Each structure stands twice: as structure tokens, then as C-alpha cells.
Amino acid sequence: MRKAVDALTSILRCPKCKQGNLFLKENILNAIYVVTSTLCLKGFPDLRFRTYGYKPTLWKMFYDIYAPFYDFLEHKLAIKASSSEELLRINIAKAMNLIDGNFVLEVCTGTCRNLALFTSIAKGVHVGIDSSFKMLNKCTVNLTSTSNANVMLLLAYAENLPFKNNVFDRVLIGGCLGHISFKRKALFEAYRVLKSGGLLIVYDQVTFIDRLTNKVIRDLMLKPKRLKFIDFNYLLSGHIYC
């Protein structure tokens, strides 16, 4: 854990003061400009700091409960949609256009199935964040077969990313934009940490009501104006957009 956190500190910033670098001392991440310290929760740096006074506690509790069944149920749901989860991840990986040396961030990484695939495609630094400790705990199981050691996981919120500006070549917001409370803030945060010329990929589930009310496009139009659309596709027979 110490080695992974040390590597992370070069790109981290304090989510509370928005400017202070973080440094590791006695297994505690400390911020230079604030008195409070950030504990490493059972091996994962805990950088969950509320946005506008709000913490997504309900969703965190839901995914803590869902974590043991997540991979099994998601696989079954994909089969019900007449497709496969593996095919979805391959399509996402193609959209990411990964190359060796990329710094890659997945927001709402879940159980790290995407990151496990990404590491087999290109060597680089891969970072996953999630608000649920138990989901990240499942990640450690799913990543045991990967030979790429540069996978780092931390607890954080999409609306308040604990990273410096312009550090990632690729950012993926996977399967969570629909239930993020402050979607505009999450999209602006993803754009903030993205390098110039980098790629932001968003995918999420789509319901019949979402398509009827054009909710997907309305959500995506909350993006920063400087962030340009490159492509838009429906996957899994229209159940997923990317």
C-alpha cells in the first residue's frame, strides 16, 4: 500500500482546500494547508470530501451492500439484454483508444473489471475511484491476475476529485452519471483533471423513459463548453450509451 500511495501523491491535491499537495506520514495522508489529515481506510486512501455540504451516503450504502453480488448480477443483466458484459467492456476499451504510457482515471470504478481489461491493453498508470469501500475491496480480487502493478485505488467522490489539474490522458465515467446528484460538477471535475487533447468517455444505462425524455443528451449537455463531442453510440441493444 505504501508504494502505491507514494506514487499517487505526485498527482493528488487536497479535496478540502483545493490547492495543498498531500504527503504520506505514518500511513496518513496529510495536507499542507489544512490541519486535518486523511486516513488510509484499510489500505485505500480516503479522500471523500463532501460537495456543497452534501455526501452521497445513500448510494455509498447501496453499493456497499451490492458489492458481493455486483459482478454476478451485472453479468446476468447483460445476458437478459441479449449481449455480454465482456463485449460492452471491449467497446469501451476501443473508445478509450489506450496507448502505452497513458495516465488513466476511472470514476466510479466499481469492481475494476474495466481497469483489469485496460491494463492488459496498454501499460500505464491506472487509477480508480469509488465512494464505496466494499466495491474497492472487490477490486483487489479482480485485479489479482493483472501483471500491471500501476493500478491505484482510492475512495473519493466524482464531484470532488482529489487530483491536480491536467494529469490524465483518459478519463472514464462509468455507469454512474445518472445517479450523481451534481452532474455538472462531476463533468467539470473530469474535464479539470484531463490533459489538453485527452479523452473523456461516459457510459451509462438507458431506460425507455430516458430515451423518451431525451435525458441522456440533457445530462451530457451539462459538460463544459470547451469539451467537444466526438462520438455517441447506443450499445447492448440500446440499453447502454457510450
CATH class: Alpha Beta
Number of helices: 9
Q: List how many beta strands DSSP finds.
A: 11
User: What is the overall shape?
Assistant: globular
Number of structural domains: 1
- Fraction of residues in β-strands: 15-25%
Secondary-structure element string: HEEEEHHHEHEHEEHEHHEE
Q: Structural class of the helix and strand makeup?
A: alpha/beta
Radius of gyration: 17 Å
Q: What's the pLDDT, averaged over the residues?
A: 80
How would you name the CATH homologous superfamily?
Answer: Vaccinia Virus protein VP39
Helical proportion?
25-40%
In the predicted model, the low-confidence regions spanning at least 5 consecutive residues are none
CATH topology assignment: Rossmann fold
Strand order of the largest sheet: 7-6-5-8-9-11-10
Largest sheet: 7 strands, mixed
Which second-level CATH architecture applies? 3-Layer(aba) Sandwich
In whole angstroms, how far apart are the ends?
A: 33 Å
3D structure, described in words:
By secondary structure, the chain is α/β, with parallel strands linked by helices. The chain has one domain: Rossmann fold (3-Layer(aba) Sandwich). The chain is built from nine helices and eleven strands. A seven-stranded mixed sheet has the order 7-6-5-8-9-11-10, sandwiched between helices. It is globular.
